[in-house]
Design brief:
The complex is a heterodimer. Chain A is built from 3 helices and no strands. By secondary structure, chain A is an all-alpha fold. The radius of gyration of chain A is 19 Å and the shape is flat. Classes of the chains: A mainly alpha, B mainly alpha.
Chain lengths: 115, 270
């Protein structure tokens, strides 16, 4: 997965090279404003979806929308999209650790409450 | 890899931004001469103290291999600074992750009570705070884009806007919590123990701990951004050196990320 920003400009350095010119890619203001508008739309959707009775699916919908919003913030506002692979790798790794902790505890909980 | 040496080869003091042919090092007082790629100590040194020629320690420091190490140690390591910040953010992720774990298990056990208790939370204030945090995330991202383009004034304006929104968030939280305290809803409240179910009490305990810890993060983020404002005004944080602002921005976005999950899980489950 190689994401190249639209406004990459002339800067394209090896992220592991020394020197203090390896600063992040410049991103236009417009991209951030668009992401913000998308975030507002998703907030409106999640608030109105909460009013619809879907039973257990309400949580699923809410968490799915929240995850989409988090993805947008991470990739654009937090520059993960423009950083080197190292950052995405580290992030993926820590999310995996969290997922293992949560997943195993849920399984354990299920077994304890069912038996 | 070639390192542009902008540090004193003897003591490693930072010489970034120095352009003159000779300069007296601010760290050790030696007179340095500019060469292609950096500075070297003036031979027969007449700077402060012993000259480099007579001092074996300085001789060693002037050894080309050693100079490289100095350059490496004293260089601004932009990627390293950000990796460090992200590692810290991962510990925050685990901290809040553990709390979300507790929340989900109790919610599975007391789903009806959680729904009943969440009815009393003010969705309007929650949505307003979501709006504030999302917009403040935008303004801090724009502030970083602005300083990259060298627009210092715009950057400062956007940071002030971010701080104002963060403060607005805290003011809303103050009113929200005061209202709850007024209705005897707080952790350890005797009235709650008598009139509420166990599930509702657990819901409110989680609500206060999780939004409280989140609010503490908002306050810390505000302090970080406040420092950034001062440092930008002093020109310590600037177009070619703004990793401090970027890392503060990352922290601020993390605060936003956590709220993105807190909002539906506490305010929207009724």
């Amino acid at each position: 997965m190689s994401h190249e920003p639209e406004h990459a400009g002339a800067h394209h350095h090896d992220p592991f090279a020394g020197g203090h010119h390896e600063q992040p890619h410049e991103v236009g203001y417009g991209v951030f404003v668009l992401v913000w508008l998308a975030l507002l739309c998703f907030t409106a959707i999640t608030v109105s979806a909460a009013g619809v009775h879907l039973g257990k699916w309400n949580v699923v919908v809410a968490l799915a929308i929240a995850t989409v919003k988090v993805f947008l913030v991470l990739s654009f506002f937090m520059h993960l999209r423009y950083e080197s692979k190292l950052f995405r790798l580290m992030f993926g790794l820590s999310v995996m650790i969290l997922a293992i902790i949560l997943g195993l505890t849920f399984v354990d909980w299920e077994l304890w409450t069912k038996h | 890899m070639e390192y542009k040496l902008l540090a004193c080869p003897a003591c490693g003091a930072n010489l970034d931004g120095v352009a003159s042919e000779t300069v007296e090092c601010g760290g050790c007082g030696r007179v340095l001469v500019r060469e292609a790629g950096g500075y070297r100590a003036k031979s027969g040194g007449n700077g402060g103290g012993a000259g480099p020629a007579s001092n074996p320690g300085v001789q060693a420091a002037l050894d080309p291999k050693r100079v490289d190490i100095h350059a490496l140690l004293h260089h601004e390591d932009y990627v390293g600074a950000k990796v460090g910040m992200w590692l810290f953010l991962f510990t925050e992720l685990l901290l809040f992750g553990g709390m979300f774990l507790v929340y989900s298990l109790y919610r599975a056990k007391f789903s009806k009570e959680f729904h009943a208790a969440a009815l009393e939370l003010n969705t309007g204030i929650g949505a307003l705070n979501t709006l504030l945090l999302l917009t403040s995330s935008l303004t801090v991202a724009l502030a970083i884009a602005a300083i990259q383009k060298g627009k210092r004034g715009l950057c400062l304006l956007l940071l002030w806007a971010t701080i104002a929104q963060g403060l607005g968030f805290m003011v809303n939280k103050y009113f929200e919590w005061s209202y709850k305290f007024g209705h005897k809803i707080y952790p350890g409240s005797l009235e709650m123990e008598q009139s509420r179910t166990e599930g509702e009490i657990i819901f409110y305990n989680l609500y206060f701990v999780m939004t409280g810890l989140h609010g503490l993060h908002v306050l810390i983020g505000l302090v970080c951004l406040g420092f950034c404002v001062v440092w930008i005004m002093k020109n310590w944080v600037r177009k070619d050196d703004f990793v401090v602002l970027e890392n503060s921005g990352l922290y601020w976005h993390l605060v936003d990320l956590i709220w993105i999950y807190l909002f539906p899980l506490f305010y929207l489950i009724s």
